[in-house]
Structures are given as structure tokens and as C-alpha cells.
Amino acid sequence: MLVNKLRCRITSAVMSEPLQYLSVAGDPVREIPLSVEDLLLLYGNMAAGRAYDRKCTALQLQGRLATYAPFEGQEAAQIGSVFPLTADDWVVASYRDAAAMWATGYPWVNLILSRTGDERGGCPPDGVRVLPPSITVGGHMIHAVGLGWAEKIKGSKSVAMTFFGDGATSEGDFHEAMNFAGVYGTPTVFVCQNNEWAISMPRDRQTASDTIAQKAAAYGMPGIQVDGNDVVAVAIAAAEAVDRAREGQGPTLLELLTYRVGPHTTTDDPGRYRDEEASHQWRRRDPLSRLSAYLASIGEWDEKWAESVAADTGADVERAVAEAEALEPLTSEEIFTAMFAEPTSQLLEQQRMAVTDNG
Amino acid sequence: MAELNIAQAINGALGSALESDPTVIVLGEDVGATGGVFRVTDGLGERFGPDRVVDTPVAESGIIGAAFGMAIGGLKPVAEIQFMGFSYPAFDQIANHVSRIRNRSRHRFTAPMVIRIPYGAGIGAAEHHSESAEAIYAHTPGLKVVVPASPYDAKGLLLEAIADPDPVIFLEPIRLYRSIRQLVPDDPYTVPFGVAEIRRPGNDVTLIAYGAMVKETLEASEKLAAEGIGAEVLDLRSLVPLDADTIIESVEHTGRAVVIQEAPRTAGFATEIVSQIQERTLYSLAAPIQRVTGWDTVVPLRRAEHHFVPDAARIVAAARKTMES
Ligand SMILES: Cc1ncc(C[n+]2csc(CCOP(=O)(O)OP(=O)(O)O)c2C)c(N)n1
Known about the structure:
The structure holds two protein chains of two kinds. By secondary structure, chain A is an alpha/beta fold. Chain A contains twelve helices and seven strands. In chain A, helix 2 (36-61) packs across helix 11, helix 3 runs parallel beside helix 8 (231-246) and helix 6 (141-154) runs parallel beside helix 7 (172-184). Chain A starts with a helix and ends with a helix. Chain B is of the alpha/beta class. In chain B, helix 8 packs across helix 11. The radius of gyration of chain B is 19 Å and the shape is globular. The interface between A and B is large, with 46 and 43 residues. Bound molecules: thiamine diphosphate.
């Protein structure tokens, strides 16, 4: 339904320029087909993502969280992509995609719990169709193919969206996922956040092809490059891809051009392998300021509101942290209880040994 | 001689191999520019350049498959996989190709290559970053499997692995990378495979360990000594080949054995050692052999990881149990 409003004809396989609606300065380069209400929703979700992300980095520095993979700069890519999804759709994301996961129903407390190193983070409330994030690179994309395929077989209109990085496209799994999706026409949306780095490896050492989007052609699906820091462009490209999937027209690959302005994780020092000048440049292309500049230009910007969104999320995240920290860690007994529906006799015996300290 | 930790000792071994043998090539994810996720290859990229220390795309199957081709083609690749959980995407290459080429070509083609894999838990890492899958590799015919537990052995075993004519899985205990320092010769030297080291002599019970568990086991032996129990500690150093003779001799001497592994219990490498003992020297045993192992669970995450990883207290308890009979 969204797409009727938003149609932007991105499905031609090759576009010379990445899809863009807002220039870096926030000027519209084409008519903006989203309502002010939608734009505020997008901004608010991006601001929430950023507040969470910064909070996590701070908490990690205090030693309260395990290693954390920040996504600053990628808020538009994540929030824009999930904009057209409904609660019946599936999200299969990676370790850096907390904003996308949260915006589709995965609670902060689950995200935080995982970051404290607690398996219960991976158990979102019933009905949330978001899988725990994939920590291995690349293995999860095909799961969104299987999920979409299952929906197709069941005759539902649900789609599956998967998030991965530029580095992940080097894994053989990427090829297999794209190939299956193409062959079976599964309702799968592949969202590659090309943030230019895979730990220390730049995108041009990852693949010799000009773009990641062009890889779609080899699997018989459309691939499109989008300005990944332009949340409007991302939302519209995603809406069209989701619409195609829903209407039985098969998979799409979106390549969202963005940048990981922070470190790979809190233990990484990007100064070892890249010139941080590029990060400074990219900070000027910040997705939040871009949208706020546009909103201001149409008289819809309210600084106080934006501050309150960030503050509210900060408070939500604080509460989630308190909740996660208040939860007693899994006991020696409990580490055995989620291996099978019914524990084997060996597990029960080992559980007894663990509880009595191998006695 | 310099006092080095395990990470530095491995770095030294790689440096001297790259220097002395132009066919040696180091490849893996982030091994060059950033010196690897554990900084084990730190500085090698600068010293030897991007053709000898190669940053690869994120593709473990590709790394091992390409290294395999290089090895057949006359190079000596030393591939790094970032964490043991990420060796699984390469398992097809390892088990179906690397390990078999000598046999299926009756020696015509061989794959002299080293696959370095940091393994094990104990640092509260993320999922898939704490695995101990040595039994899977030891169970794959055609692979040698080596696990150092000290800086001296790390350098000597790695140089031995690089010199070996067959593929070697070289397991690096993550937890020990920077926790033990030892004097290590500057010049290259090798430590032979298949020779266990008696880390501590004792008369009452044999404690058999490898990798990260050696440290816990030595700690346990101190505690046992304080109780008047003399534990003999064996550090296996290589699982394939296995120095069964030293194990048997020690068990015949003490009459008691505890086998320690961090990996899950069922079908772990400890089981193999127990079998060897019972096959060869059952009647010298004064008590049933005990195993101290991880559990048949996924390694718990940071908050509960300690329930999984065997510690000195568990080893002491198992040793005491053998002393009861
Ligand atoms: C199978 C596997 N191999 C290696 C790793 C280690 N690792 C974690 S993130 C990463 C880089 C991935 O880069 P990219 O796909 O571009 O995503 P980004 O981290 O930039 O979001 C690597 C190599 C892993 N987690 N899984």
C-alpha cells in the first residue's frame, strides 16, 4: 500500500547514480513522497537508535557490557529499510543492526541483555518476528530466503528482510542465498549496508566489481544503489522492494552506501588501518542532520522535540540496562536447560555434576 | 632470548619463517593492516608487504581453499582463521580437500600448509568466539593437530608445523595469548610433534591436559601438593600425533589418571586418551579414570561462562576422587 504512494521506479537493474531524495545539505533533489508525520517518525527512530548506540559505547567503556559494535552513521540505512515492514514480516539481521531490530519490535532490554553476555537477550517477546542477530558473518542471509520461502508456500503476504555488510558479500553464503532467492523467487529483501569497511578491509579489497548492487544481475533480481545516509531514499527503495516481494515478484538487493564512522567494535582502533579524515567527512553527511535540515526548511523542525526523543530513549535504555543487570545470571543448572526440548540423560547427569562442582 | 608471551612467540615464529623461506605466505582476514584481531601478526604486513602477508576478503572457505591450491602449487601458506567458530565455514575445504589430497593422489599431490585457529573460552567473548573443536579436527583423518600451552612451545611447534610436509591445524589458546611469559630464543628452533612434556613430576596421579587447560591443571597440581597428593602433569602439545607412550608410562607409574579438556564432554579428545589408557594399561589402574570437561552445551556467554570452563577446583575434585580408591 505504501508503494502506491511512493512509486519511484527503482526496479530497472542499473541506475547511474545512487538513489537520493535529500542532498547532503538536506535539500530535496526530487519531490519528497512522505508525509511530515512519516518523516518525524523516521527521525525519531533514528534519534532513538543513536541514543542507544552511544549509550552502549559508554557502558562498554565502563565495563558493563561486552564488546560492542557501534553503528553510528548507519541509522538511516537501518531505520529507512524497515520503514515499510509490518509486524508480520521477518527481520534477519547482524550484530551491528540494533536500530533495525528495535524498530521492528525487538526490545531494548533484549539487545542490552545480549550485550551483557546473556543468552536470554535472544528471546524476544512472542510474536516478534526478528531473529537474534547473526554473529557469524554471512551465514544468516539464506535464512531470510527460507523464511520468505516458507511464507510463500503458506500463501501469506509476509516478506523477509536481511541485513548484512559489504564484507559479508565475500562469503560463499551470500552467493548461495542470492541464488536460491532468485531461483525460487522468494519474497526476500537483501539489505547490504555498504559501510566501506569490514574491520580493516576496505570495500575495494572485498570485491573487484564496481558496485555490490550489480551483483544482483547475476542472480536475476534487481539491485539498486541507494544513498544510505538519506533516510527518505532508503525508505522508498525499501518500500518498493518490499512491495515487489509481497506481490510475488521476488527478491531485491539494496546496496545502501554509508560509512562506519566509529570503530568496528569497542576493541578496535581504526587509526591502525584507515585515515580518520574520511570519518570526519562522513560525519558531515550525517543522516540525522540531513533530515533535520530538511524538516527545518519546511518549518517542521522542533529542536526541543528532538532533544526529548533522545532523552526519552536514553531513559528507556537506562531502564533496560537496570533491568538486564538486575536479572541474576544463568545458574550452573540453567545453562543446561535450553539445549533440547527435553534434556538427554547425559545432559541431566552433567547438570548434576555441574551443580555439585563435578563432585 | 627475550621474555615473550604466546602471541609474541607466534609472531616471532611467523617472522622468522617469512624471512628464511620465500615460499611462506601468511593469509587471512585482517592479518596485514591491523595485525589480526589478536595482534598476533602485528608488524608482519609492514615488514614483508601485502604479497607475503595477505589481507583476504571475509571468506573462510575461500582462504582455506586458496591456501590449499597454493600449497599444492609449491607455496607454504600459513592461513589464519579469526576464531574457531569461523573455521566451520571452511570445514568443507579442510575435511574434503586439505586432509585428503595426499591419500587420494597416493602422495602425488600434497598440502603442506598450516591453519592457525585461536580457540577456547574464558574471555567472555561473543557467540562463536569461544569454541573448542579440536576433537572434530583430530577426528578428521589426514590432519595433524597441535596445541601449544607455553610461549616456548608456541614458537617451536609453529616452526615445526611450517616445516611439516602435511596440513597442520595449529590451535592457539586465546586465554593464554598474553597471560604467560617465558624466555624464548631469538633464533628459530622446532619442537617435535608427538612428544608430550612432563610439566610436573609426581607419584600419585597423572593429570593429562593440553592448551589452555594446562594452566588450570598446573594450578590444580599446586593445590593437590598442598594436600600431600603428588600430581604428575602432562602437556600433550600435539593431539595428532599423540604421545600415547608417555601417557601410558606415567599412568603405569601413578596408577591414577584424570584427563582434562575444555571442550564439551561427549566424544571429546579426552575420551580418546581414556581409551588408550584402558586398552594398554587397564590393570595398572588403582582407580577409575576421571574426565574433567566442558559440558554438552553451547559455551555460555560472558555472564555464565565460568560454569562451563573447567577450573582448578574441578580438577582437584576429580583427582581426589581417584585417590579415594
Ligand atoms: C564467518 C565469520 N568470519 C569472520 C568473522 C569476524 N568478523 C566479524 S565482523 C567482520 C567484518 C564484517 O564486515 P561487514 O560484513 O562489512 O560488516 P560490518 O562489520 O562492516 O558491519 C569479521 C571479519 C565473523 N564474525 N564471522
